[in-house]
Amino acid sequence: MAKVEQAVGQAVMAPVFALDRLQAVPALIGRHEDFLIIAGLAGTARDLTALTNDGAHVYGLAGVMGAAAMMGLGLALAKPERRILVVTGDGELLMNLGALATIAVLNPPNLSIVCVDNGHYGETGYQESHTSRGVDLEKIALGCGLKVARTISREDEIAAGHRLIREGNGTAFVLLRVKPTEPPNFKRNMDPAYCRERFRAALGVA
């Protein structure tokens, strides 16, 4: 019985969240102008609007938990000539894990997904998320059928993740594990009509 309990304890051991998101997210993404970007709600929306100075090529979400990955899929299918980047959090992705299965089946080569995993639900009170308790989103992505997936938890791994989101021959998934600290203190434009129209302009849609 003791051995079984020990094995169970090891199976659900929480990962290490060590990277500083203020440095790791910009380093992983690099030249953000290379992408059309869907940013998940809460922290990742602030990460990306701060990085791009609220750029027109970023559509940051609010109040639609679970939508980012599927919006990125639709954009990748509609704009195959453009590179599409989804940057979302662990809490937001946990709300719609089925999206990874659909994305894996369609496997658009111009889509990359970065999950900024801090092990907490930043939008709803900073409770621990399932990833703090051993849920591994990279393994889930691979289990759904994505062929290109990698976890980044150390600074010396960031360069490989940077290449992966640009050079994949199919949809790439990068899990970026960061400390549960605050995202950038950046006030983004929250006018939905304005943000929609400027993103349409960045897409080249009249």
Q: What's this entry about, in short?
A:
With 206 residues, the chain is α/β, with parallel strands linked by helices. The protein is 41% helix and 17% strand.
Describe what this molecule looks like in 3D:
The structure is a single chain. The model has no long low-confidence stretch (mean pLDDT 92). It is built from nine helices and eight strands. A six-stranded parallel β-sheet has the order 2-1-3-4-8-7, with helices on both faces. It has a two-stranded antiparallel ribbon with strand order 5-6. Helix 6 (98-106) packs across helix 7. It has a single domain, classed as Rossmann fold, CATH 3.40.50.970. It has 206 residues and is α/β, with parallel strands linked by helices. The N and C termini lie far apart (66 Å). A hairpin with a 5-residue loop joins strand 5 and strand 6. It has helices at residues 2-11, 21-29, 43-52, 68-78, 90-94, 98-106, 137-144, 158-167, 192-203, and strands spanning 36-39, 58-60, 84-89, 111-117, 120-121, 127-128, 148-152, 172-177.
Main sheet: strands, sense, barrel: 6 strands, parallel
Helix share bin: 40-55%
Helix/strand-derived class? alpha/beta
CATH architecture: 3-Layer(aba) Sandwich
